[in-house]
Amino acid sequence: MSRSIIHRRRTPAGAAPGAFVTPSEGPPPVLRVVRSDGESVVEETPAGAREAFDLVAAGGVTWLDLQGIGDGALLAELGGLLGLHRLAVADVANAGQRPKVEDYGDVLFVVIRMVTADGADRSAGHDRWEQVSLFLGRGWVLTVQEAPGDCLDPVRRRLREPSRSIRREGADYLACMLLDAIVDGYFPHLERIGERLEELEVEVVEAPDETTLAEVYRMRRELMTSRRAAWPLRETYSQLLRDGHPLLTSTTQPYLRDTADHVFQVVDVIETYRELAASFVDVYLSSLANRTNEVMRVLTVLASIFVPLTFLAGVYGMNFDTRAPLNMPELRWEYGYLAFWGIGLALAATMLLAFRRLGWLGGPRRSRSGKRREAPR
Amino acid sequence: MSRSIIHRRRTPAGAAPGAFVTPSEGPPPVLRVVRSDGESVVEETPAGAREAFDLVAAGGVTWLDLQGIGDGALLAELGGLLGLHRLAVADVANAGQRPKVEDYGDVLFVVIRMVTADGADRSAGHDRWEQVSLFLGRGWVLTVQEAPGDCLDPVRRRLREPSRSIRREGADYLACMLLDAIVDGYFPHLERIGERLEELEVEVVEAPDETTLAEVYRMRRELMTSRRAAWPLRETYSQLLRDGHPLLTSTTQPYLRDTADHVFQVVDVIETYRELAASFVDVYLSSLANRTNEVMRVLTVLASIFVPLTFLAGVYGMNFDTRAPLNMPELRWEYGYLAFWGIGLALAATMLLAFRRLGWLGGPRRSRSGKRREAPR
Amino acid sequence: MSRSIIHRRRTPAGAAPGAFVTPSEGPPPVLRVVRSDGESVVEETPAGAREAFDLVAAGGVTWLDLQGIGDGALLAELGGLLGLHRLAVADVANAGQRPKVEDYGDVLFVVIRMVTADGADRSAGHDRWEQVSLFLGRGWVLTVQEAPGDCLDPVRRRLREPSRSIRREGADYLACMLLDAIVDGYFPHLERIGERLEELEVEVVEAPDETTLAEVYRMRRELMTSRRAAWPLRETYSQLLRDGHPLLTSTTQPYLRDTADHVFQVVDVIETYRELAASFVDVYLSSLANRTNEVMRVLTVLASIFVPLTFLAGVYGMNFDTRAPLNMPELRWEYGYLAFWGIGLALAATMLLAFRRLGWLGGPRRSRSGKRREAPR
Amino acid sequence: MSRSIIHRRRTPAGAAPGAFVTPSEGPPPVLRVVRSDGESVVEETPAGAREAFDLVAAGGVTWLDLQGIGDGALLAELGGLLGLHRLAVADVANAGQRPKVEDYGDVLFVVIRMVTADGADRSAGHDRWEQVSLFLGRGWVLTVQEAPGDCLDPVRRRLREPSRSIRREGADYLACMLLDAIVDGYFPHLERIGERLEELEVEVVEAPDETTLAEVYRMRRELMTSRRAAWPLRETYSQLLRDGHPLLTSTTQPYLRDTADHVFQVVDVIETYRELAASFVDVYLSSLANRTNEVMRVLTVLASIFVPLTFLAGVYGMNFDTRAPLNMPELRWEYGYLAFWGIGLALAATMLLAFRRLGWLGGPRRSRSGKRREAPR
Amino acid sequence: MSRSIIHRRRTPAGAAPGAFVTPSEGPPPVLRVVRSDGESVVEETPAGAREAFDLVAAGGVTWLDLQGIGDGALLAELGGLLGLHRLAVADVANAGQRPKVEDYGDVLFVVIRMVTADGADRSAGHDRWEQVSLFLGRGWVLTVQEAPGDCLDPVRRRLREPSRSIRREGADYLACMLLDAIVDGYFPHLERIGERLEELEVEVVEAPDETTLAEVYRMRRELMTSRRAAWPLRETYSQLLRDGHPLLTSTTQPYLRDTADHVFQVVDVIETYRELAASFVDVYLSSLANRTNEVMRVLTVLASIFVPLTFLAGVYGMNFDTRAPLNMPELRWEYGYLAFWGIGLALAATMLLAFRRLGWLGGPRRSRSGKRREAPR
Description:
Five copies of one chain form a homopentamer. By secondary structure, chain A is of the alpha+beta class. Chain A contains ten helices and nine strands.
C-alpha cells in the first residue's frame, strides 16, 4: 500500500539540488544500445558510459536504453558525456518525479510514468508503476527506467524488422514511438481496473459486504495513482504541441498529436471510472440501509405477532382466586382454551394482513402510483 | 454493461501508430456514393475504392458514405486515394476515439459519436453509440460509421428532393448538415432519458425500492456515456468556430454556429439530468431512513404497550404462598381481576396518548412552529 | 414537472437547419408596434408583417412587439422583410433555445429567458418561463415572446410618459431597457423562492417530514431552471460588454453594464440558494437519524426496565415442587411478595438512574466538556 | 434570517434604470466633511450638498463622509454637483449591490461591503453587513454607507493626528486607506466565527445535539454571506491592480496591493472555515450513528441475557400434569430450583463473555490488527 | 487548535498600513551574518542592524539570517538601511501572511511558510508552521523567521564546505537554495502525515471507533494547513518562472524550476491525501452502519427464536380449568412436556435454518451471482 501513495525520497530534505542517492536494492542496471544508420540496425551492450557515448558519436540514430537506476556513477558519467544538466540527472535517480517536459536547449527531457503488469499477478491493482526518464538529443535518445521489464518491447521488435519506417526516421520519431508505447501501456491497466469495476458493480448491487467496499476503495486508490500519472502528462503534451521544439520535426507532429489523443482518452476513462467507483459507495450504503431495514422488519413482524399473544397467555396464567366469581371467569369456561386460541390466531392473522398491506412481508403491494411492483427483498 | 464503459481496443498495446485491426464480426461494410453537380443528384454503389474515387474526381460535390469498418483493405485504399494521413485512417478503424477535429491541411478530419435507438428496444438506456469519422476535402465528404443504420437518413432524403438548397451548396455545407443531423440525434436520446427520469422521480418519492436505485444508477451511467460524447464535441466546435478553416466557407459559418448551439444545449441538458439523478440518491436514502424509522416506531409502540402489561400479568402469575397475608393479597380481592384489566387498559391508553403526542401514530400533531401538519406516514 | 426539465422540440431530429414548426395550441399571436420619433409616441396594431414593416421604414425608433409564436407565416414574412437570417427565425419559433447573442452584421440577435408569475398561483415554484427573442436593427427592435403576458409593461408605461428619456434615445437604448426589464423580472421570482426556502428552513429544523424534503427538492429544481436561464446570460453579457457592437452606442454602455451587474447578482443569489437548499438535505437526514435514535432510546429504556422484572416474575411463577426445602423457598417467606416488589423497584430505579446519566431520558446531563446542556429531545 | 440571505429590493421590478427608492426607516443621514490642505485638517458638517461641494471646490483633499442613504434628494444633488452617473447614484441608494469597481472616466466608483459588530451582541453571527459606496474624484473622496456606525474611525483618528502621512498624500491614498480599513474589519468578524467554530468543534465531537448542528449551520450561513462579500472584491482588486487607473498614483500602488493581499487572505480563511464547517456535519452524523449503535447494543445485550432466561422461567411455569412421570420431572427434583438458577447464571455469563469479546460492553478488546484499544463508549 | 486555523493578528483592525506589533513572548531574536567573497566564507553575529549593514556594504554575497521577529526596532532599522518598503517590513512582523512574491524594483520580497518538526513530538500533526520572509537584494539575502530552529541548516552546512558551488554563485542562487530547503522540508512533514494515514487506513477498516474518526479529522486539518501553505506558493513560483526578474540570473533558472517542480509535487501529494482522508469518512460511516446491522441481526435472531417459544411456554402456564375436557388437554397428555420441547426445538431449528439461508449467522451463503462468499461478520 505504501508503494503507491507514499513515495519516500531517498535524498534527505535540504540536500543540495542536483544531489541524488541511487537505490541500493534491486538487480544491477543494464545498458543496451540500439543504433540505426537508416539501413541496418545494430544492438550492443557497451561496457560503460564511454563506450556507449562512442556509439552515439558515430552518427545515425542511437537509442541508449538503461534499465535500472542503481548505478549512480554510470548515470553521472553518461550525463556528463551527453551534456545533461545535473538537475535532470538527479531527477532520473530520484524517481517519483511528476511527469513533465523540460527544455534544456539542445536536449529535451521528458519524465513519464510507466505501468507494467506484475509478472505473476495480473489481476487489477497489482500493476507496477515506475518512472521513465527520456532524453532526446540531436541523433540520440536516452531512456532510463527504474527496473528491468517494461512495455517497450514492441518498439524494440519494430526496430529489428527491416522494413519498418521506424528505422528510417530520426531520433525524434523514435522518442515519440517510445512515449506512445508507454501511454499505450495505460490501456490494458485501465481495462483490468474496468473489468474489476464491472465485477464489483454486480457484487455491490447483489451481495455487498465489507470486502466489496474494501475492494471498491482499493480501485479508487489505483485510480488516484493512475490519475497522478496521467493528468500532468496531459499538460505536458499540450505544452509540447503548443510550443513545439527545434528537435521535433514536422513529420513527428501527427504522431505527437496521436499520443496526446491517447492521453486525453486515458484521462477521460480515469475520470469516468472514478465517478463510477464513487457511485458504488452510495449504492453500498443504501444497500446496507436496506438490509438493516429488512432485519428490523423481520424483528418487528415477529414481535408484533407474539408480544400480544404472550401477554394474553400471561393473563390466563395469573393466579387470581377464582372462587370470587369476577376473577377470571374465562378460566372456568368450557371452551375458554379454544376461545384463547381463536382470539390469538385472529389477532396474528390481522397483524399479518396489516403488515402485508404495508409491504413488509415481501409480497406484492400496490404502490401509491397505482402500479404493481415486487416488494423489496 | 461492458458495452458503454469499457471500450476494449483491438490493437495490442504498443502497436505501431497507424496500425489498426478491423472488427471481424458484423455485416460487411457498404459503400454508397451520392454525387451532386448542383443540378441533379446521382446515387451509386461503387464496386471498390477506385470506382468511388473516380466519382470524386469527376467533380461536383461527392459524399462517400461508408457504413461499416470491417474491410481494412478498402479503408486503406480509400485513404491512399483521397490522401488521408495513415493515423487518421487508423482512428477510423480503431473506433472508440474521443470526439475531435484535426486539420491535415487540405483535409479536415472530424470524429464524432452518433447515438441511434436500437431497433427493437426503444426505451431509455438501450440506445447504441458508435463513432462516425468525417473527412472533408475539396469537393468531397467521406463519412465512415461503425455499422449500418444511423440518423443520417433525413440528410439523404433532403439530398434527393430537387428543390433543397443542400444540392446547391458546397461540400462544407454537406459536412455541416451531416454533423448537425448527428447532433440532432442526441435530442431524442436525451428525451428518452428525461422521460425515464421523470418516472423514476415519481417512484423514488412514492415507492422506492432497490430496483429504483439500480435504475437511477443505470441512468447515471447513460448520462456518463452521453457526457463523454458531448463534452469533447463542445471543445471541438468552439475550436472550429474560433479558428475557422479554409475549407469552411463563410456561408456555412451560421450553420456551424447553429450546430454548436445545439451541442451547448445538449451539454446543458446532460448536466441538469446528472444533477437531477444525483439528487434522487439523496431522496432515496432519506426515504429508506424514513421507512426504518417507521418500522422502529411500530415496534416501539407495540412493545411499549405490551411489555409493562406482560410484566403485570407475570406478577400475578407468581406462586407466592398466599397463606401469608402480605403475599399477593390482590389475588384474593374480589375485583382483583377487573382491577388488573382496568390498570392495564389505563396504562395502554396513557402510552397511546403519549405516542400520539409525539406524532408516532400518524395522527395530526402540532409542530413547534405552531402550525398543524400531517404527521409522516 | 415535465414543463421545466424536459423541453420537447417540435422539429423532428434531422430536420433541415432553419426549419421550424410553430406550436398549434395557445391564443393567436398579437403584433403591436410602438413608434417614437423623439417627440411623440404612436402605438398601433398593424394587420400584417407588411404594414409593420412600413412603420419601421417610416423612420424613428420602432418597437415591433410580437406576443405568441403560433403564426409561422407571419414570422417568416417579418423575417424576410427585416432581413433576418433564417436560422435566427427558426430559433425564435423553436423556443427553448439557450440564452445567447448572435451578431448578423446589421442585426443583433439576443435570446433570453423571461420568468413571469402565473396569474393565479403566485407562490414559489409556479412561475412560467418562456423564451424572448430580441432583434436589434438600425432604428428598430423586434421582440418575440412565446405567449402574451410578460414583465415588459413597465417599459411600455415609460414609453407612454412624455417626459421620459426612453423616447429620446435610439433603438439600442430601447433594447437595453427591454432586456433590463426581463432581468429585473428574475428578482421577484428569486424572492419568492427565497421566502419559501426560509419557511422550509424553519420546517426542516423543527418538524421535518417527507413533504418537507419533497418541497426542498422542488425548490432545487426551480433553481436548476433559473440557473440554466441565468448562467448563459452571464456569458452573453460579458461578451457584449467585452466586444461591443456597432449598433450599441456609447450612451447605452453604462446601461448594459448595469444590467450585467444585475445578471451577476442573480447568479450569485441562485448559487447561494442552491447551497442553502443542499444543506437542508444534510439537516433533514440528521434530523431523521436523530428521531430514529430517539425512538430506539424509548424502546431500550422501556425494555431495559421491564425485561429483567418480567424475568423475575417468571421465576416466581415457576411450579417447582415446593415441598423440597431448596425449591423456591422465597415463595414461602412471609414478606416474599413485598421483597419481590422491593427488588423490582430498586432495579428499575437503578436502570432509570443509569439512563439518566447517559442522557437518554431527556433530563439535563453534564457533557464531558463540563458544561451543562439541554439533552436532545 | 431574511436579513442576510434575501435582500428585498426597494425598487419594483422593471423600474427605469437609475431610479431608486431610499429607505424610509432609520436615523436621518449625516454628512460630514474632512478637508486637508496638506498642513491642517478641518472637519465640518455642511448644511447641504451645495455647501459640501463648495468645500470640495476649495481644493486640497476633501472627504465627504455621508452616513445613511435615507435622503434621496441630498444624494441626487450631490451626484449632480460631483458629476456622478445617475446609475452609480442609484447603486448607492439601492444598497445590496455586488462589490465592484466602475470606471466613469474622471470618477472611480467602488462598491464594497462593510461588516461591523453589533453594539450589543458581539458574539459570532450577529455582525451587521452594509454596503459602502466610494467615489474617488480628482481631489475628493465620497463615501456613503447605509447607516451610521462603521469601522472607519481609525482612519478618522489618523487624519486628526498632525504627523501622519495620510494628511500629506492625495485623495487616492485616502481612498485606499478607507478601503483598507473596511477590509481590515473582516478579520475580527472572521475571528469571531473562528472562535465559535472551535467551540463547536469540541461540542460536535464530545456532546453533539440538535442545537450543535443548528449552530454549525448558522455559521455556514454566516460564511456564505462573508463569501458573497469577499469573492467579488477579490476580482475587483485584481482588476484594479492589473489595469490601474489615472486617478491612482504609483505611490498608492503598494497600498492597493497590500489591501489586495488582505482580501486574498480573507478569501483563504473563509474557504478553510467553510471546509471545516462542512466536515462538522460528517462528524455529527457519524456521532449520531455511533449513539444509535450504542443504544442498540445496550438493548441487544439486555435482551440477549434475559430473553432465554425468561423462556426458561416460562417453561417451569407450565402446568403439565406432573402425575405423568415424563411431564416436567425437573419440578420434582430436590435441587431443581438451584439447577435452574445455575443454568440461568451460566447462560448469562456465557452471553456476557461473548459480548465482551465482540467489544460490546465497552471493555478492552483486541482488534484484528493486534493492538489493544479502548472500545467505543 | 487555534494555532493552525485561527491566526489572531496582533495589529488592531484599521491600523495604518505599515504599522506592526512584534510579539512580546518568545526568545530574543538572533541575527547572524554569513558573508562569502567567492573564496572564503565568514560567519559573524553583528551587534546590531548597522554592523550587519556594514557587512553587506563590504561586497560579496551576504546572508543576513534573522531568527525571531520580537525586536521591532531592529526590524525597522534593518529595513531602513536595506531600503525595504515599510509595507514589506510590516508583513515580516505581522506573521501569518499568505505566501507571495512582491517586486520592489531592486528588492524581491518572498513570503513562504516553513514547517519544522517539533523537537519532542515527531509524530504526525505536531509540526510547527511559521512564516519565513526572504528579501533578495543586489548581493545580499535577508531571511527572517518567526522563531529560532528551522530546516535551513543543510544550507548553512553547504556554505561552510569549501568546495561547494553555493560559495561561488550569486545572492540569487543563495536565495533559491534557501527556498528550496524550505520546500524540501514539506516532504518529511507529508511523509509523517502519509504514514499516519496508512495506519488510519488499517484502523478504519478493521477496528474503527470514535478516536479513529477524530484522528482522520485531525489529519484533514493538518492537510488544510499544508494546503494553505502550498497552493499560493504554486502561483508564486509560476509567476516567478513566467515573468523572471532582473535579480534572477539565467543560471538560477533551472534551480527555480526544480523547486517549482517540488512545489507541484507537494500540491499533488496534498490533494491525494485529502481525497484519501475524505474517503476514510465514507468507509467509517459504512463500517458503523455495518456494525449496527450486525447488532440488529443478533437481536433479531435471538428474539425470533425465543419469542415464539416463550409464548408457547406461556400458553401451557395458563390456568384454564382443566376439568373441562377441551381446556388444555395437552397438559394431561403423558408425553405433553416432551412434545412441548420437541415442537420448541423444531421451531428453533427452522428459524436458525432460515437465518442461515439469509446469511445472518455468519455462515457461508450463496449470493445471487452464484459465487460462494464469506458472509459479513
